[in-house]
Write a structure and sequence with these properties.
α3 packs across α4 and α4 packs across α6. It contains 20 helices and 14 strands. Helix content is about 45%, strand content about 15%. The longest helix has 22 residues. By secondary structure, the protein is of the alpha/beta class. The strands form 2 sheets. The chain has an 8-stranded mixed sheet with strand order 3-4-5-2-6-7-1-8, with helices on one face. A 6-stranded mixed sheet has the order 13-12-9-10-11-14. The radius of gyration is 30 Å and the shape is elongated.
């Protein structure tokens, strides 16, 4: 509890607070024991005002861990609170204290120093956001006298509470949830991505983006600030899309890889130096890298969500053999197909339906002509596939039927009949519908096609960024994305069986007999 003071002492202590550190030390050296106790209390208050980390040190008797990278988090909070930063983006590896400092001690420090202002905390789930809210609420209940703030007795929920005698408080919500009520001076978005499956899901990425645009930003005060804190997962995760949409100078980005990989490291580290060597040394990170694989380590630990090539395709194979629409226009094709890999099944990344058009020349070379993949229902993907077949004059529509049986064939037929009724087919015959079933592993399906790319036999007619990114970043063992699967289906249908077998005789998986 605070020692009691009278009005004269209060005035003296207020004057003491405004003195320099040297002046305060001189006064404390001459103070009587009764006054010294009160001066110590003021020194605690001054320390707690400095930063979230200093507040944590005081309240936990320095048990709370501190590190150079956490000082950057403290500075970001101070800059937002004092109006020097409106947009802060912080990315660092798991277990390096980002959420504890930025989403717990930071808001606690802010509410203590500015009890008339409010904070919003959002996360991938309401449970996680509520955990942050509950921790801050409980901290105020535990250290209220030291902090100088208390909860409103009628507003103590873990996801929403107000401060007694002040306008300030906190609201917590999961992405997709509502944030009705009062606005906020500072909004924190912590861990907007749950896991790699959500990161790879276009549906989940769109959900986070829609919430960011339509919900979170509408609750911010005119002079408010936003801080996005996350471990990077995907090029198009929330942080990635924000940076792609925003002006370059709009965001203050604090990017902290687990292992320094740039001579311009924000902490001035040498190349290869760990971020927090006292806890996670180079040997630890080497073991982690081996355990989790290159893609996960590049994204989660190095904050480079575009990982090294996955080992099946090399980007150079695509770029070197790419051709233009003009050059392709002078060639005659022996066959043209459209391949469809419907969304669904056991895959955790199958939120899109893969729809890819491809062709085979008389010389045996193969061509990717178009990628119409996207998130769509059955009727829409049927129409999209049929329209692409009409545009390309395809002789067949190849459909992955693992999880739909005859349904996939029926969807294509119904879509074609719909286009016939509207006159879009212009009297053309319906292409053959070829159902394929994936009978072997994804790597065994993909590797023969990758061999053709390596041999310079496959050409992309133009640039298909999303499809190409899926191909070169796919790692065996991951669920294969639908664009890539559709491309593999199309090229396998078109390729000569002898051509596919070239150079891969050790993989006797009968992939050409009965297809996939």
């Amino acid at each position: 509890m605070r020692p009691p003071t009278n009005d004269r002492e209060t005035a003296l202590l207020d004057r003491y607070r405004r003195l320099s550190a040297g002046q305060r030390r001189a006064i404390a050296a001459r103070a009587k024991p009764s006054l010294l106790t009160k001066l110590f209390r003021v020194e605690q208050q001054i320390a707690m005002d400095r930063s979230p980390g200093a507040l944590a040190a005081v309240l936990t008797d320095r048990r709370e861990m501190q590190a150079r990278h956490l000082n950057l988090v403290d500075t970001a909070w101070i800059d937002m609170a004092e109006g020097r930063r409106e947009r802060v983006m912080l990315s660092m590896p798991p277990r390096h204290g980002k959420s504890r400092r930025a989403s717990r001690w930071g808001p606690l420090w802010f509410l203590r120093k500015y009890p008339h202002r409010r904070v919003i905390i959002g996360s991938y789930s309401s449970d996680l956001a509520d955990e942050h809210g509950a921790w801050i609420r409980d901290a105020i209940q535990t250290w209220g006298d030291d902090l100088g703030i208390h909860l409103n007795p009628g507003s103590k929920a873990r996801n929403r509470f107000d401060l007694h005698g002040h306008e300030g408080g906190l609201i917590a919500a999961g992405i997709g949830g509502g944030l009705t009520g009062k606005g906020a001076s500072i909004a924190i978005v912590d861990d907007p991505v749950k896991d790699m499956a959500d990161a790879d899901s276009p549906t989940m990425r769109k959900r986070a983006w829609d919430w960011w645009q339509a919900v979170l930003q509408t609750r911010l005060e005119p002079d408010g600030a936003i801080c996005v804190i996350q471990t990077r997962w995907h090029e198009d995760d929330l942080s990635g899309r924000i940076l792609a949409e925003a002006e370059a100078n709009e965001w203050h980005v604090i990017e902290l890889p687990a292992i320094a990989d740039s001579p311009d490291d924000i902490l001035g580290r040498q190349l290869g130096e760990p971020l927090w060597p006292e806890r996670f040394g180079a040997v630890h990170h080497a073991k982690t890298r081996k355990r989790v694989g290159e893609r996960v380590f590049a994204a989660l630990y190095q904050q480079k969500p575009r990982p090294p090539e996955g080992g099946v395709w090399a980007r150079a194979w695509i770029d070197t053999n790419r051709t233009s629409v003009v050059a392709f226009g002078g060639l005659d094709m022996a066959r043209i197909v459209v391949a469809v890999d419907p969304a669904g099944g056991d895959s955790t990344v199958s939120d899109e339906t893969g729809i890819v058009g491809a062709a085979r020349g008389y010389d045996g070379h193969l061509y990717i002509l178009d990628d119409r993949s996207g998130s769509m229902g059955a009727n829409d993907w049927g129409l999209t596939a049929c329209r692409l077949a009409l545009e390309l004059r395809a002789d067949a529509i190849v459909v992955e039927s693992n999880y739909g049986g005859d349904m996939a064939r029926q969807i294509v037929r119904q879509a074609w009949e719909q286009l016939q009724r509207s006159g879009e087919t212009r009297g053309l015959l319906m292409p053959m519908v070829l159902e394929v079933t994936a009978k072997v592993g994804k790597r065994l399906r993909a590797e023969p096609i990758a061999q053709l790319y390596e041999q310079g036999l496959v050409h992309h007619v133009g640039i298909f960024s999303k499809l190409e990114d899926q191909m070169v970043t796919w790692v065996a063992g991951m669920d294969s994305p639908d664009r890539m699967d559709a491309g593999v289906h199309a090229l396998t249908e078109l390729a000569d069986p002898d051509q596919l077998d070239t150079g891969i005789s050790t993989l006797n998986d009968q992939r050409l007999g009965g297809r996939r």
